[in-house]
Amino acid sequence: xxxxxxxxxxxxxxxAVDVEIDGGRITALTPTGAAAPPPDATVIDGAGRLxxxxxxxxxxxxxxxRVGLPFRPxxxxxxxxxxxxxxxxxxxxxxxxxxxxxxxxETLGRAIGxxxxxxxxxxxxxxxxxxxxxxxxxxxxEHHAERAxxxxxxxxxxxxxxxxGVPELMDEALRLGADVVGGIDPCGLDGDPVRHLxxxxxxxxxxxxxxxxxxxxxxxxxxxxxxxxxERIRAHGLRSRVTLAHAFALGMSPREQVLPVLDELATWDxxxxxxxxxxxxxxxxxxxxxxxxxxxxxxxxxxxxxxPYGSTDMLDRTWQLAFTQGWRRDADIELGLAVASLGxxxxxxxxxxxxxxxxxxxxxxxxDVADLVLxxxxxxxAAVMDRPGGRTVxxxxxxxxxxxxxxx
Length: 408
Ligand SMILES: [Zn+2]
Prior knowledge:
Layout: E1 3-11, E2 17-22, E3 25-31, E4 42-53, E5 55-60, H1 82-92, H2 100-113, E6 116-124, H3 132-143, E7 149-155, H4 166-176, E8 180-184, H5 193-207, E9 211-214, H6 219-236, E10 242-245, H7 248-252, H8 255-267, E11 271-274, H9 285-290, E12 295-297, H10 314-325, H11 330-348, E13 372-375, H12 380-386, E14 392-395, E15 398-402, E16 405-406
Parallel strand pairs: 1-4, 5-6, 6-7, 7-8, 8-9, 9-10, 10-11, 11-12
Antiparallel strand pairs: 1-2, 2-3, 4-13, 13-14, 14-15, 15-16
Helix pairs in contact: 2-3, 5-6, 6-8, 10-11
The protein binds zinc ion.
């Protein structure tokens, strides 16, 4: 096993150190220049850059991305209901001019170039696309297997009950290689939360897979769905097995209603993911973190038939999280970076959690996995504000991307 040494890097903006890596983990940090690297070591020049844990994008739709393709006008008609978005996507996704596999591979590659080494991606499964999108995302995962880990959610974007055959397709998706059972708005989309959750939890139990449910439902309805999910978790004893994506209701409801729900999520170790939406729907991130609830950040759909936003750069999304949370203090913005990196790792693997509460400064110590990114910048906050190029990305101590270029 080769030893790697990153020389002259500043963990979270601290003093310059040399970082020795063996077997994919950090084995020593020593002041820069205190000792020469072992003669057979691979030396990586930190060049005085910041050293941070690499990013994780745990709410991304690699199956719908159009990043890199010609920009197109947003075509969802008003009123823009969820179903209007679904129909707009159905009308156009086959016209992209590139296959799902090609588009997902391109977007994933760019994200890796920016410092991401772990993703949880949705792959839509429905009566229209059947398993075509899932197969595209699985191909992209295979293509970048050495550079990033990708967990794939079989995602019933158009509901489980509105059209025939979707539960059966979900079943097939899990047999084909999807890792996680998806669900969406049990009340708002399918209009039958009991049957919707029956299908989701039955698949999860039969295949022994975790669950990830999109909850766009607002206010009371969203809190109601959250409580229904918690009821199922209690009944099945599914601690640490469920993620709620978006959970807009937890951002927009009165605090006295939200805090008891957060306590219950903490009790059952239910994870949350946010895409840093507007301040109205944004999760109360500090309340979430203070309770030890796992929380990760994601890009959502990018430049696709849903949204013109998204750049594949998790530093952009970290900026958006900080901005929409109204953060200015360095410690808060560093918390955002921790959510965007270590937070997502814990969403994917509940055992992969560090000291709680989550904060900046973690993930670059002896014993930590050497999934790292070197970023130019005076301080971590400066890096979030500037989002500079010139990054070097390591997975398990191996350089997988340098200055945006992917290495074989
Ligand atoms: Zn989503």
